[in-house]
Every structure is written in C-alpha cells, then in structure tokens.
Amino acid sequence: MKQRAFVLRLERCVGCRNCQLACKNEHQTAGPINWRQVREGEEDGRRYYVSLACNHCRNPECLRVCPEKAYWKRRDGLVLHLPRRCQGCQACVQACPYQAPRYNPETRKAEKCNFCLARLDQGLLPACVAACPTGALNMITWEGDPGAAPYSQWLAFLPDPALTLPSLQINRSGEGRHFWQQVQR
Question: Where does this protein have coiled-coil stretches (predicted)?
Fold first, then answer.
C-alpha cells in the first residue's frame, strides 16, 4: 500500500507563511479560509513553526463521521472531499483534530486540502511544497505501513497522532542549527 505524506523539517521552517499563501493562491479560497496554516508552538523552551493542512490520515475521522459519504480515500492514500455530496453539516469540521476541513459560509459546504491533485497529475509538487524557500516542507510516498516511525519526533502541542494516524512526518534533526547562515563580508 502506498501513502502520500507531507514531511516537515522543523529546523528549516522560519514561519514565512509562503506555503499558506501559495495554497490560498492555488485554490482561491474565500476570505479568511486557509487550507494550510502555519501554527506556532513551544516545547522544551523552544519555539517552533509548524505548517499544517489536511494530513490525509490513514484513519481519517472526516471520512468516518460524514453522513453523506462526501469523503473517499484513494489508493495512494489521499483523502478527497466531494463537494457535490456535502450538505454542510460540519461533522467533519468538528471531528478533525487538526482542523483541516473548513466550512465555507458562501458555498455552505466543507472544503479542504486535496494535496494539489491537479498539480500532481501534471508531475508538479503541491503549491505549498513548491513555494517553501527553505525546503522545510516536502512530500514523500510511504511504501507499506510505516507504523509509528513518522511520529517519533512528534510535538507534544499537536493532537495525539494515534487517533487518525496522520500522513505527516515531523523531523527535528539538526536542532540548534539555523537554516540561515551568516554571510561573511
């Protein structure tokens, strides 16, 4: 079984929000709706920026709770939303521990990250990944069941990954180093 996943290298994320802006631009989301958000958190006295969108979980709560069956999971692990089936009940919005589905009051439907499916079909990276100037955000494909390995460096201020098994791998390697290097004059 294959599973597409996002990888976040924490030591490289500077909180610039280019990923968030690229997503908004790519999908033309309404007003304050952002499918990708950069959150700040602190752990062990250190501040982190964490870029989060839909994690295309291996055990997605949105899919489980939707009474209209407006979600489906592809063979590559992507969890997609079918707006034509959505009745706007917001059960998915309330169930997702990562707050990935967003309710759009204009359309009266939920919406969420689709991993830039149209871009993937063209052989391109998701807009958020392509826009990251530091290489902090990337994508991979897991072959088979990765087990708990992706969660070995999970941040305590994020929801417990055991519930939904998010397809997000957080790497904290290189802590104490800075991506930006001082330029000698």
Answer: none
